[in-house]
């Protein structure tokens, strides 16, 4: 059969998580709570940073942008997912599916590069403290941030155009709760070998390149920390990196499991579970990780709480 004789589908059905209506309602309440916590935590982090002296530090400039990306990242997936949990037929149009994929891929890639930029910032701050104000100027920070967004946009264009230039002639049931690339590639009627390889190569490039930057940065950081004679000094220096390392491990671990395995397109149910972590759980956890593991954030938070108590 030739592609010219195929009829392109005009909509997709998102299967999501199957189950009885009471199970769907329980999932709705659970993920609604997680989404609200994501919004409250990340908006709170942005407000805290921009109303305190923290906003002048490159580290917290990047952290506030990480919170902004997490809000957008979660919002392009979760509201639609919540709606689908309440309706019987979970239909998404062809164009809406492509749009959701573009935003998701763009923001996910941007977050990968932003985490690498944050690792470089910590490397400069700890290994070259005297040059830190000269190297990490406000203009450099804006350029690094712009570069993260630019690479994210380019990667999203490549993946979205590569996926939606394929033919989808049916069935149109996407075995996921959002328009994820592996789930859509399984539905393609045309040869999707090139698209699979593009997904693997580009995802591997994004993850490996940023992982190399992060590993090298933290290798130098560890070397510098071990040369500090005071145990208290070591703990204080490395505590500023602990939250970032935890966020990196969670995010890169799930993305690698999902996208950087050549045979990973065949595992369906585990893909859905893993994708919940990087689309819903991790954006919720990031503010908690950074607030609990970072002394400056905790100090700023206590300061704001004391101010509010005094005003009352």
From TrEMBL:
<feature type="domain" description="G-protein coupled receptors family 1 profile">
    <location>
        <begin position="41"/>
        <end position="290"/>
    </location>
</feature>
<feature type="transmembrane region" description="Helical">
    <location>
        <begin position="60"/>
        <end position="82"/>
    </location>
</feature>
<dbReference type="InterPro" id="IPR000276">
    <property type="entry name" value="GPCR_Rhodpsn"/>
</dbReference>
<dbReference type="Pfam" id="PF13853">
    <property type="entry name" value="7tm_4"/>
</dbReference>
<keyword id="KW-1133">Transmembrane helix</keyword>
<keyword id="KW-0552">Olfaction</keyword>
<keyword id="KW-0675">Receptor</keyword>
<dbReference type="GO" id="GO:0005886">
    <property type="term" value="C:plasma membrane"/>
</dbReference>
<feature type="transmembrane region" description="Helical">
    <location>
        <begin position="242"/>
        <end position="261"/>
    </location>
</feature>
<feature type="transmembrane region" description="Helical">
    <location>
        <begin position="197"/>
        <end position="221"/>
    </location>
</feature>
<dbReference type="GO" id="GO:0004930">
    <property type="term" value="F:G protein-coupled receptor activity"/>
</dbReference>
<feature type="transmembrane region" description="Helical">
    <location>
        <begin position="102"/>
        <end position="120"/>
    </location>
</feature>
<keyword id="KW-1003">Cell membrane</keyword>
<keyword id="KW-0716">Sensory transduction</keyword>
<keyword id="KW-0472">Membrane</keyword>
<dbReference type="GO" id="GO:0004984">
    <property type="term" value="F:olfactory receptor activity"/>
</dbReference>
<feature type="transmembrane region" description="Helical">
    <location>
        <begin position="25"/>
        <end position="48"/>
    </location>
</feature>
<feature type="transmembrane region" description="Helical">
    <location>
        <begin position="273"/>
        <end position="292"/>
    </location>
</feature>
<feature type="transmembrane region" description="Helical">
    <location>
        <begin position="140"/>
        <end position="158"/>
    </location>
</feature>
<keyword id="KW-0812">Transmembrane</keyword>
<keyword id="KW-0297">G-protein coupled receptor</keyword>
<protein>
    <recommendedName>
        <fullName>Olfactory receptor</fullName>
    </recommendedName>
</protein>
<dbReference type="InterPro" id="IPR017452">
    <property type="entry name" value="GPCR_Rhodpsn_7TM"/>
</dbReference>
<keyword id="KW-0807">Transducer</keyword>
<dbReference type="InterPro" id="IPR000725">
    <property type="entry name" value="Olfact_rcpt"/>
</dbReference>
<comment type="similarity">
    <text>Belongs to the G-protein coupled receptor 1 family.</text>
</comment>
């Amino acid at each position: 059969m030739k592609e010219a004789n195929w009829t392109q589908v005009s909509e997709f059905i998102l299967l999501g998580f199957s189950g009885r209506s009471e199970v769907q309602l329980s999932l709705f309440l659970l993920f609604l709570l997680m989404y609200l916590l994501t919004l409250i935590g990340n908006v709170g982090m942005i407000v805290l940073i921009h109303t305190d002296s923290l906003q002048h530090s490159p580290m917290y400039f990047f952290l506030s942008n990480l919170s902004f990306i997490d809000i957008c990242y979660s919002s392009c997936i979760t509201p639609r997912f919540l709606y689908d949990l309440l309706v019987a037929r979970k239909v998404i149009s062809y164009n809406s599916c492509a749009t959701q994929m573009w935003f998701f891929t763009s923001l996910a890639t941007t977050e990968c590069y932003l985490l690498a930029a944050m690792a470089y910032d910590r490397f400069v701050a700890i290994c070259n403290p005297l040059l830190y104000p000269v190297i990490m100027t406000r203009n450099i920070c804006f350029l690094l941030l712009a570069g993260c967004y630019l690479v994210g946009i380019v990667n999203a264009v490549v993946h979205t155009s590569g996926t939606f230039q394929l033919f989808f002639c049916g069935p149109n049931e996407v075995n996921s709760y959002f328009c994820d690339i592996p789930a859509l590639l399984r539905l393609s009627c045309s040869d999707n070998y090139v698209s699979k390889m593009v997904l693997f190569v580009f995802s591997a490039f994004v993850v490996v390149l940023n992982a190399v930057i992060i590993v090298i940065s933290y290798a130098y950081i560890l070397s510098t920390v071990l040369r500090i004679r005071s145990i208290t000094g070591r703990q204080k220096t490395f505590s500023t990196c602990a939250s970032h390392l935890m966020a990196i491990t969670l995010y890169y671990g799930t993305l690698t499991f999902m996208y950087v395995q050549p045979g990973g397109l065949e595992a369906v149910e585990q893909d859905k579970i893993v994708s919940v972590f990087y689309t819903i759980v991790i954006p919720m956890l990031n503010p908690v990780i950074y607030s609990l593991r970072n002394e400056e954030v905790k100090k700023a938070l206590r300061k704001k709480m004391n101010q509010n108590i005094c005003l009352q």
